[in-house]
Amino acid sequence: MRAKNWLSLPSIDFTFTSRIKPDVSALKRPKGVISSTPTTSPTKKRIRTISDRPIIPTLSFSDPTSEVDDGQADDGLDSLTSVGFDTRDIDGSSDSEKSWAEDQSGESELSGDRGGEDDLSSCVKDQFSEESLEGATKSDAPTKANRKSLTLFWRVETQEEKEERVQRDFEKLRLDHEKRQQREERERQDQEEKIASGWVPGVKRKCAHPSLEGFNGNNEQSAAREVAENSRPCRQFKEDQRKKKKPCGRKRVNESTPALLTNWFQPAIWDQIEVAAHRAGKPWSPRLIVHEAQRLNPKCFAKLSEQVIGRWIDREPKAEGIYRWRASVLEHVRRGNAPGGERTRFGVLDAHPDVKNKIEAELTLLREASVPLTLITIRGIMVAIINKLVPELFTKNHQQDQMALESLELVFLAVLAFYLGR
Q1: Integer Cα distance of 46 and 8 in angstroms
Q2: 219 three-state secondary structure
Q3: What angle (nearest 5°) sits at the alpha carbon of residue 350, between those of residues 345 and 351?
Q4: Tens-place pLDDT, residues 172-200
Q5: Could you give the count of Cα atoms lying within 13 Å of 31 in the half-sphere of its Cβ?
Q6: What is the pLDDT of residues 281-320, one digit of tens each?
Q7: 198: left (phi > 0), else alpha (psi -120 to 50), else beta?
Q8: Where is the composition biased (Acidic residues) (predicted)?
Q9: What is the residue extent of each domain of the chain?
């Protein structure tokens, strides 16, 4: 075998102990240069960089120019085969020589950029002689039987093991199916019991009586509603008065519901808040005030939050060391049991205060002059003044006109009650 064929192996690398070291600085290909190696060439899988090549066992040569016997050459090939190199093309066949020639002719075009590789090849050729490679034969190359298989890492499942695994999986599926059937059967029985007790699927159940809704001695929601309802005594008083009156007017559509918001300015509740603020001391801390109030009456102040207390405290004098409630809060406290609310119904003459003042002045003059006033007289005076100052009140559409007439009746009754009471 010739040394030229031995050097044609692109994946073989040697390490020597000689003083002569080849120049490998020019092995790296410049950026942008495309290899001209044909796809059929055995050099297609060549590793182009030294750093990416695997570590090869060192061949113990005393001198690169010395002769090597057949035993040393065989040992070298065996060591290369053990690390996974394919040495089947070492025999110097015509295909290998042809591929090597094609590769050399293709790479000769890039000789200006790859001059370093040619120098390295010539250097390695000079260091080996033909006699040192005579011991390498094709019979030393590994076969497919010698290659490592995946079964070295994973054991092949036997037929008995496969049957056992399939049986185990089937048993697990059967148990899961039985559990699912039992669960569905329990759910079906529970639904039948609920339907028998009066439950209708898809419809939310309502309490048998509105007064019993949420009734529970330990229910916080029920206690909060009770406190909210007790903090508004005038609300219940109005309901009682409405029931005692003779039914008249339009019928009520919706029944009254329990109060949800607590009137904290109710006299009995506000007095406890004042005591809690006194116990908390200065500076007024909303958190401490709420804490003292809940210690004083846990049931009543369970829903009181420190944010609400913080809105009640006047901030401007607090910065100066003066602690007091805001003026709007004190106004609500003065109202006490009648906290009021937003006014949504207005009289027809509220937008014309001059007309109201004119009617009141005329009736006052007649009263002071001892002129007898009857319902017809008072109504005639009111209609005359309105028709003179704001006649458009009588020319609106039917709905607004009806509302205007009702408002006029209310104004008339109010004025009449005022003058009859004097």
Answers
A1: 11
A2: coil
A3: 115
A4: 999 999 999 999 999 999 989 888 887 77
A5: 0
A6: 888 899 999 999 999 998 899 889 999 999 999 888 887 8
A7: left
A8: 66-77
A9: 3-149, 221-246+259-335, 353-420
